[in-house]
Design brief:
homotetramer; 158 residues; alpha/beta; Rossmann fold; 5 helices; 38% helix; 18% strand; globular
């Protein structure tokens, strides 16, 4: 069985309406290309992206920090309960072929760092202008196109 | 969105033909009831159960020990790369509503212990006769019926 | 630098006085042989063993499930905050050269399973009579003597 | 028992001589103030910092990515084998009261992100000039003084 590309969407658990709308558009694009969305499974950017993917018929996976699957947002089709707190970020990144980062805080920064370490390409969507080694995109469509393109050339894990 | 019940199948990475046939029948039954199969994503019991589920149109999730999704068996639809080695057992158990255990070794014993700790009911399918606090089943159908029944009354995590 | 042998003591977070006294004696013996004690860092068997080790001048390491080091018992010299919940059991076992198990429940069973998987010898001290592949001891002194003896021949991790 | 403050030193596994000398000076200062050093247990900045701490009579803890304690550098007194790969970064950060970051790459960036998320203050020692929310230091002494000062007011984990 050939598996579909898996794209992570990372961003803050609380975000302004413009960022949420962008996340939802990213989710829609991911599903439209036949890719699977993986995220942290909670609110904000994670919920908006999952909503967009489900609206467009895509599969969504949420990697949760706790043991309670009821903490997944309602747009998560497959809730993975890790019980590992922040260490679950490593599972999100490792599970993805490529990573799309929207404006975020500490949590997102750690995920970008892990992606660089594990060789998963990162596409910064209107965010993190002062970080090096990231791909850049200005629209949801551009971000997902780049993510799909790069999914075939995932770097070597350490 | 109401999520489907998730049933873990745990057992050895290498097993005799009779055990593999039983695992495949369990996978088929899980898919037939509309449940999702989660397992360790590798060979032996894990591959046979996932094969049975896919043959019957079900979804399969493999929680891998490493970072390389190519190490998933070909019947895994969604490969979760944890990079966490044996600690990934905790993710398998926490993600499941109930757990079906086939004859296994050390790895399976640790998963049963975690399930008891996290309050996930365990159904021992022709295995572990000398362990207490496990539900018992003699056939694949009986095991999955019990697993589905118990999925609604999952215990409280610590 | 040659590192001292590291011995894990595992057992229930609540235990009757006789088991706690046994755990404390084990801790005392571990320190007396110049070994380091590692445990889950919480109460019951974990606290009693750490108390014994500290009373006898030994070092104690507690591998905690949460992020709060204040949850370590007062006899833990070095508190390792994992935030990984039950998955922290894998860290306890992997950090130990050998494992001494006192009467326990689900949590301890999962640790024994992990030890067998990771090739760390287990000494069952008046416990788990129905499990195979464990070494047996009847006294604290006998358990620690066996643990030290076996520390030099730790099995190969998978 | 009052536990000593624990300070993490994070940085690249390979670094130029000037950075290594700085790391060693940081380790020496940490031990000189009676604090415990925690790090990733491998080479480069991690080994240099641990060497400095041990030379000055301090305790050193190495949180390793693998299961093999022999992969710890020779200056690690207590080797914690996590087997969790990059997820072990979360254990380093959570175990520390404060974090000193030397010039690094992806791995270090993820650790800074985790520290911000878990509320552990970060002191950037001649590094990461373009990241916000970090404390700044120019010398080893200044970095450790700030780290000790901030150890008493560790933020609240999420």
């Amino acid at each position: 069985m050939k598996r579909a590309p898996v794209i992570a969407v990372i961003g803050a658990g609380e975000a302004p309406p413009g960022v949420l709308e962008l996340a939802r558009a990213v989710g829609r694009e991911i599903a439209g290309r036949g890719a699977v969305l993986v995220c942290g499974g909670r609110g904000g950017v994670m919920a908006a992206a999952a909503q967009g993917a489900r609206e467009n018929g895509g599969h969504t996976i949420g990697i949760l920090p706790g043991y309670d699957k009821n903490q997944a947002n309602p747009h998560i089709e497959f809730a993975i309960a890790t019980g590992m707190g922040e260490a679950r970020n490593a599972v999100i990144i490792a599970t993805a072929d490529t990573v799309i980062a929207l404006a975020g805080e500490g949590g997102t920064l750690s995920e970008i760092g892990l992606a660089l370490k594990l060789g998963r390409p990162v596409i910064a969507l209107r965010s993190w202008p002062n970080l090096e080694n990231l791909n850049r995109a200005e629209t949801a469509s551009e971000a997902v196109t780049t993510a799909i393109d790069l999914a075939g050339c995932v770097g070597q894990a350490f």
